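Review form for a predicted model. The reviewer records the input and the model, then writes brief findings.
Reviewer: anonymous (R2)
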Amino acid sequence: MLWLVLSFVCSFGFGQLFKWSQRRGYHAPTVVSVNYLTLASAAGLYHIFFGQTPLNLAAGRIGLYTGIAFIVSMLVMTRALERVEVGAVLTGFRLAILVPVGFGLYLWGETIGFRQAAGLAMAGSALLLMTWRNGVERRFGVALWWVLAVFFFQGLSQVFLRAVHYLGLDGFHQSFLLATSFTAGMLGSLFVLGCRRWPRPKELAMGMGIGLYNLLALTVILIALAKVPGTVYFPAHGCAVVILDNLAAHFFWREPVSKAALWGAILGAVAMILVL
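Model under review:
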């Protein structure tokens, strides 16, 4: 339970750091890319000086796939936020928890009881209420494709994170994180170079800070996934983080919270109780 709660806090903090970056007008692809390159450098240095296990080829391979999914997911999401209502994009992002849950049930033989199934359904409803703030996008067809893209790539990222445990790679988190972050960082850097935009010093500093934090956050998440079934972890994680996001939006960022978001937070709390 401790690792589960710590993963909630780490994911919440990661999102808030990116929100802080956004409020300062920093270029999101640049910050994301520097974040992953910093994570790769930190993971590499840690392995050189403190690593107790050799680099693992299988962990590196799944890390390669995860890195591709990570950077594509982040780039698709930042692009979608420019074209589609924020609430719709966030809904697709948060409901992506259904993808690893589905994989867990179908591919890895995870089980789900009636109470957990009810909690999962309530979690989906809660996420809809808490993230859909700005009404329905007028260009429904365009919005639908962007939301589905965010849903798919974010869900795929979480499937790869979950696969680390089922592939028997829990002892090789260093190899996995190194391959994941290096792949995502290099691909993101190529994208930034393609934009022909020179990074500002403050963007580099922000990305480096987030990268060091992300190393801790991803390590905690991988440990939690090794200890908790995906059918429990993903619904509880999704609801907990969105509830914390809404609390921060109201009390720290001074953003209005709708009645729908309030009811969603209550529903999400009940869903977590059922799932856990």
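Findings: DSSP finds eleven helices and no strands in the chain.
Further findings: Residues 134-138 have pLDDT under 50 and may be disordered.
Recommendation: see findings above.
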